[in-house]
Amino acid sequence: MSFHVVIGFGPAGAATARLLAEQGRTVRVVTRSGRSPEPGIEHVALDATDTQRLTEAARGAAAIHSCAAPPYHRWADDWPPLASSLCAAAEATGAVLVVLGNLYGYGPVDGPMTEELPLAATGTKGRVRVAVWEQARKLHEQGRIRAVEVRASDFFGPGVTDGGHLAARVVPPLLRGRPVTTLGDPDAPHSWTYLPDVARTLAEVADEERAWGRAWHVPTQPALSVREMVGRLCAQAGTGPVAVRGLPSAVVGVASLFSPLIRELKEIRYQFDRPFVVNSSAYEAAFAVRSTPVDEQVKATLEWWRERLATSDRQGRQG
Prior knowledge:
The protein is α/β, with parallel strands linked by helices. The chain is about 40% helix and about 15% strand. It contains twelve helices and eleven strands. It has helices spanning about 10-20, 50-60, 75-95, 125-140, 170-175, 195-205, 225-235, 250-255, 260-265, 270-275, 280-285, 295-319; strands spanning about 5, 25-30, 40-45, 65, 95-100, 145-150, 155, 180-185, 190-195, 215, 245. Strands 3-2-1-4-5-6-10 form a seven-stranded parallel sheet, with helices on both faces. Strands 7-9 form a two-stranded parallel sheet. The protein is globular, with a radius of gyration of 19 Å.
């Protein structure tokens, strides 16, 4: 079976590496710190901005999956050298460069987002994401590399923790019957991309030559507001409804003085103050992956969180 390199082992990188291994692929994961081996996955410690070492690690690979996520406040500094190194490694090895992107590049829009929209973001993070893809796309058009970008909305599902808007700040409280506080308008329609669907899409496009050279949206279920998603989680969990409150702008402003993460979130608050809806029909018309039904997403997510919290409680008692 083919050899794949996955850059990064956050939620998306881990899900992708494990799926590829389950499919019988040979998988090498590249992270700064490395990890212990696991079934079907080799972990290598190296800085992916070191082009020579990354190229050596990716020699013979069918695909390089870019799933790394520099610290949020470091995007402007850390993404350019990482993107250049990934492109250089793809060119030197002939591996397909599969870039996991997001929807920031469109900026605020009216109506559902499609891949045909202009990349018109004016914020720093949005422009950084645009530059990452534009660099790979131009090299693809020049025939120097083969590249494809897969764009996802906010992650939801097993494995999504502190970085998810429907994860650590939402699921543990509602399982305890406590109120949930969220960024922006809790009633604004919002697209949530299920993490296993992200992994399945990344794996699929790596093998599909007709996917290369453009960006695609990960198959995503119709948009639901935070309040609607919390209601479904509560119903599945059997906890009864909980209050859902939007975080006031004034509170965000004060919190941003002390929290780098909150400070960075101010740039993309529009995504939660108004409808933020992705259209993935183009991908679904062309390829096999389909979005997982919401009820299945909710069930699997709650099961994962319950096990995670139970494990944490056991470790706490043992400690």
